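Late entry, written up from scratch paper. The run itself happened at the end of the previous shift, but nothing got recorded in the book at the time, so transcribing now.
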Amino acid sequence: QVQLQESGPGLVKPSQTLSLSCTVSGGSITTNYCWSWIRQSPGKGLEWIGYIYYDGSSSYSPSLKSRTSISRATSGNQCSLQLSSVTPEDTAVYYCARFHFGAADYWGQGTQVTVSS
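Output as recorded:
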């Protein structure tokens, strides 16, 4: 059974960098899946942030691309998200998810991140 677990600080100050990790168990991050980060802000729908593919290639939402970096650590079977220069509008529940053939088949439980001074 594949499980994804997000972790990271729940509170980030404006202008700082948000850093989250997603630990994958029950499967390898180097197998042919796509590992995505998605968020949901209060009162809004799901917003795709970006993904890293099993071969290390990545793609980002155009609206967030300039501030986003997604990487992976094969030794720890993790993928990580960094979002720089955060503002209160980046307050959201952040999810990692595994995609296969364009559909998400496994999700983490999500982690709340609040941007506030």
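Residues 10 and 113 are 4 Å apart (CA to CA).
(Scratch paper discarded after transcription.)
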